[in-house]
Amino acid sequence: MGEGVGDSRKVTAVLRILAVGVTGLLVLCSGCNNGQEEEVRQRADNFEAAVHGRDWTQACKQLAPTTRDELAQSGGGSCAKGLANETLEAPGSAHKVKVFGTTAQVHYAHDTLFLGRFADGWRVIAAGCTPHRNEPYACVVQGG
Q1: To pair with 43 at 20 to 30 A between CA atoms, which of 17, 25, 109, 112?
Q2: How far is Cα of residue 128 from the mean position of the Cα atoms in its chain?
Q3: How many other CB atoms sit within 10 Å of the CB of residue 139?
Q4: How many domains does the chain have?
Q5: Coil, strand or helix: which one is 119?
Q6: Boundaries of domain holding 119
Q7: pLDDT tens, residue by residue, 50-64
Q8: 38-64 as b/e, with b when 16 or more CB fall inside 10 Å?
Q9: Handedness of CA 130, 60, 117, 25 (dihedral sign)
Q10: Rounded to whole angstroms, how far apart are CA atoms 29 and 93?
Q11: Looking at the whole model, is its pTM more than 0.70?
């Protein structure tokens, strides 16, 4: 019977160690997502600042390759010209950043941006997006 008590104590000790380890990982990982959220917010803010400063070349640098290509097609070979032809309203302040693995969404007061994670970091996939009841978002700028 003495062995059973000893085994029980060993199991309890192992469970405590596991609980402490898992808690530590959760604390560490809670900071991981915040880092991504900050990167996403920064990229989105850089895009919005460039657009509203009418710096189309800088705004195009914030875009995903397919989105740049789509704008270049509509702009006669230039992403900057294509973007200049679009109507993007001032977004207002950023309310919420959501990261879902390799995709993200940034909600502003008057705009929503969708971003994707690429080898060189987060890039804007779609901008000027507004939700529609029972339908996907409608976006002014998006890749093909």
Answers
A1: 25
A2: 15
A3: 18
A4: 1
A5: coil
A6: 2-142
A7: 999 999 999 999 999
A8: ebbbebbbbbbebbeeeebeebbbbbb
A9: negative
A10: 27
A11: yes
Calculate the CA dihedral of residues 76, 81, 82, 88 and round it to 10 degrees.
-170
pLDDT tens digits for range 26-76:
334 444 455 799 999 999 999 999 999 999 999 999 999 999 999 999 888
Looking at residue 54, its amino acid is R
3-state secondary structure of 130: strand
Q: Please give the distance of CA 101 from its chain centroid, rounded to a whole number.
A: 9
Whether residue 46 contacts residue 62, with contact meaning beta carbons closer than 8 Å, is answered with yes
DSSP for 33-72, please give it: HHHHHHHHHHHHHHHHHHHHTT-HHHHHHTB-HHHHHHHH
Q: For residue 27, what are its two tokens?
A: 């604390």
Report the alpha-carbon distance of residue 41 to residue 71 in Å, rounded.
22
CA distance linking residue 131 with residue 113, whole number of Å: 11
